[in-house]
């Protein structure tokens, strides 16, 4: 069966419709390998190829050749995914449309009722997806299949949730079809070293909190060997290790070192303040060819950090910055902050900005600043009554919802428009007067 896998682009600046080029959608290329292993002929249309906005002849030619369309979508790309689905009516024949990813998992019924979608694959799709393809090819009704949702007679039929894949099952997956990623577009190549997270920060919409599973050193070695010759096709010539707990306390660092042995290309990682402060972590970290290490601080005051659920303190952040500076490692670290949480007014936002720039000026390192955005699945989203905010799935039907003025006011109930403008102005003013501090803005 001919399976076309695609994902809609993410336009961070809607006025400039260029897909974000930092890293590729790894899930797309992993599912391509899985479908191929199941005997299907696969084609991938990357978001960078703008599949939702192809001219009509190209769209018809591209999509008419498929027997099944499978789309991966996040909440940030859902509006553009709907645009692509609406265009399926341009095709000379109907093809089944499958949607997976975090957004469809959380809002399967809304997705099925409001878009031209036949099936939703929920959760981790490595097992459900090939089974669904097999049922479609055999013309067997997959209604009720575990991990799959669909409508029958206007009613939602939702199969049982599938258990999370074990570490052994994750390691047994085929390697993603990295060779199909468009060359020369993305900055870094994504490599998954674990899945899930040991923690549950209140703002984070990670699909599987408190369910961290390590994929293992052998799989890591195989993947790095596969991507090494492809690095010249990535503008940053670096590898992004997708791992929410890269230096987690209790992790077998010896095994991780084994997986990375001999690999000397630049790495991008994310980790936590408390994990870097653990015994031996900085020694290990210092031996790695790190290009950028993102460390989430989020708030510049202890009360906010507690509400976020980071499990750290401002004093620990300062201690880490000092140790990184003394070891000559600070310039490779990017401390990330979020301003405008639902409990924050002007004072708290300015406190975070002051702390971020003071820390960077005193110790070094980079800063990442972003407005709080309400993403579904987070603790804040699931318990909106605690913060006086509430949203349904229709919010994410809006294009560029994170820039919508009406939604911005709802996301930040304690900030007036004038105060929000002052926060943004202050951030840029601090960047100007501290011109040696490297700052990445998402606000």
Describe this protein's structure:
The chain has 443 residues and is of the alpha/beta class. It folds into two domains: 2-158, 3-Layer(aba) Sandwich (Rossmann fold); 168-442, TIM Barrel, CATH 3.20.20.70. 34% of the residues lie in helices and 18% in strands. It contains 17 helices and 16 strands. It has helices spanning 26-37, 56-64, 78-86, 102-106, 108-114, 128-137, 167-171, 217-227, 253-260, 273-276, 281-286, 302-308, 314-326, 346-363, 379-382, 405-411, 417-433, and strands at 2-7, 41-45, 68-72, 97-100, 119-121, 148-152, 155-158, 188-192, 194-195, 213-214, 238-242, 266-271, 290-298, 333-339, 366-371, 439-442. It has a seven-stranded mixed β-sheet with strand order 2-1-3-4-5-6-7, with helices on both faces. Strands 8-11-12-13-14-15-16 form a seven-stranded parallel β-sheet. A two-stranded antiparallel sheet has the order 9-10. Helix 14 (346-363) packs parallel to helix 17. It starts with a strand and ends with a strand. 42% of the residues are buried. The model has no long low-confidence stretch (mean pLDDT 93).
